[in-house]
Design goal:
By secondary structure, this protein is mainly beta. The chain folds into 2 domains: about 180 residues, Acid Proteases (Cathepsin D, subunit A, domain 1, Beta Barrel), CATH 2.40.70; about 170 residues, Acid Proteases (Cathepsin D, subunit A, domain 1), CATH 2.40.70.10. Helix content is about 10%, strand content about 40%. The strands form 3 sheets. A 6-stranded mixed beta barrel has the order 5-6-11-7-10-9. The chain has a 4-stranded antiparallel sheet with strand order 19-20-24-23. The longest helix is centred in the first third of the chain and has 13 residues. Keywords: Disulfide bond, Signal.
């Protein structure tokens, strides 16, 4: 068991710039850039004071690994792994929305590095520099730079990779970072630093897949689910998996038929994806983001009905759609509709309790954050983040290029 070292510090109340975005130099569309810029701007630091969590890793059988997660206020899900020989523990955020991995190093003197559990290359007998520099410039001007390196990387004691590529960060210009770095789990076409971890793991895994359980919790800081590599934890699924083909082998993108609002007193109303669309399944995004301004219009409608309230105190919120940030309370939340996402002919439903969570875990009903975000009007796909994945156990099957979804079994923990 390991205690999260990066989780033990006082966190401010202002916005955390999300570092889990694609570098601006990647061959991504303008729409993709806008989506990532927006998510970075609105992924926020938790408001708790001292954050503490305990998590573990293991390999239940050969060809498998299990990484337990720490849930930090339903915004961040961190798991630990080791880099180097002898192994050094780092706490990482696992991201199906990117393929590139990097970690802060002991040579980094940037403010975010002073609170991180930094990797020390000089202590590793297997550390090797592949290229002298890398420089990621993110859309809002944030940067990560350092050297392209390789080393021994382990998800558990029995699931290790030799010569795994990653970025060894020397400077990190991003605010209020929680994790020590990033592990990209999307397809290799998005990687800018050699073969990503998931590609190199493929031949070692019992099954060419990984499964994700992001457990949401009103308590603020808690054990937050798990990633399993090479197997599916069947105890977590409450039903059979429904599989949807990957539409584009870059992001984990699937075809979505519609988004509906369900209310007991009236017929279902289509609120998004009117002619079919794509949805990206993104584990490192907290909220759900709609295409073509659809979530912005939905939130504005709910606001006019008095069901939610614009929180203009949040940095960047109140601009009239893109980036607006909404809250509700327990009484008004009961009047919000169930949202249904139609994927591969099956309806995946979220209750208001699924897509809202407490702003302050000690006062869960006073102010609840609505985990939907209004996107730019020219964004042509949806992003299904943690508020969706918290309700569904999800399999990323890269051997068969498909995503499986099953309702999560309630454990009572």
């Amino acid at each position: 068991m390991s205690k999260c070292p990066t989780c033990q510090f006082t966190v401010g109340n202002f916005a955390t710039l999300l570092f889990l975005t694609l570098p601006a130099f990647l061959n991504a569309s303008l729409d993709t850039q806008s989506y990532k810029n927006h998510l970075r701007r609105f992924k926020r630091s938790p408001k708790s004071s001292t954050l503490r969590c305990v998590a573990s890793t293991e390999s239940p059988e050969p060809g498998t690994a299990r990484v337990e997660l720490c849930n930090i206020n339903n915004y961040y899900y961190l798991g630990h792994m080791t880099i180097g020989l002898p192994p050094q523990t780092v706490w990482m955020e696992f991201d199906t929305g990117s393929s590139t991995s990097w970690v802060m190093t002991s040579a980094c003197r940037s403010p975010p590095c002073t609170i991180a559990h930094r990797f020390e290359p000089g202590r590793s007998a297997t550390f090797d520099v592949v290229a002298e520099t890398f420089n990621f410039t993110y859309g809002a001007g944030d940067t990560v730079s350092g050297v392209h390196a390789k080393d021994f990387v382990c998800l558990s004691r029995r699931m290790c990779l030799q010569n795994q590529s990653f970025g060894a960060a020397l400077t990190v210009q991003q605010d209020n970072m929680i994790a020590d770095g990033l592990i990209g789990l999307a397809y290799p076409t998005l990687s800018s630093l050699g073969q990503p971890l998931i590609s190199n793991l493929g031949s070692k895994l019992k099954q060419p897949l990984f499964a994700v359980n992001l457990r949401r919790d009103a308590k603020g800081i808690s054990t937050g689910g798990e990633y399993t590599f090479g197997y599916i934890n069947q105890s977590l699924q409450a039903e059979d998996f429904h599989y949807v083909r990957v539409a584009n082998q870059s992001y984990w993108s699937v075809e979505m038929d519609a988004v509906m609002a369900l209310n007991n007193t009236q017929a279902p109303v289509r609120v998004g994806c009117p002619n079919g669309c794509h949805a990206i399944i993104d584990t490192a995004t907290s909220f759900i983001l709609g295409a073509n301004g659809e979530t912005a219009r939905l939130l504005a409608q709910w606001s006019r009905l008095g069901l939610v309230q614009l929180d203009s105190s949040r940095p960047g919120s109140g601009g009239g759609g893109f980036g607006d940030y909404y809250v509700t309370d327990c009484e008004r939340m009961k009047l919000l509709p169930v949202l249904a996402f139609l994927l591969g002919g099956k309806s995946f439903e979220l209750t208001p309790d699924d897509y809202t969570f407490p702003d302050d875990p000690s006062r869960p009903c006073d102010k609840r954050q609505v985990a939907l975000e209004g996107g730019p009007s020219d964004l042509d796909f949806w992003v299904l983040g943690g508020s969706f994945l918290g309700a569904y156990y999800t399999v990323f099957d890269f051997g068969n290029n498909r995503v499986g979804l099953a309702k999560i079994r309630k454990t009572g923990i």
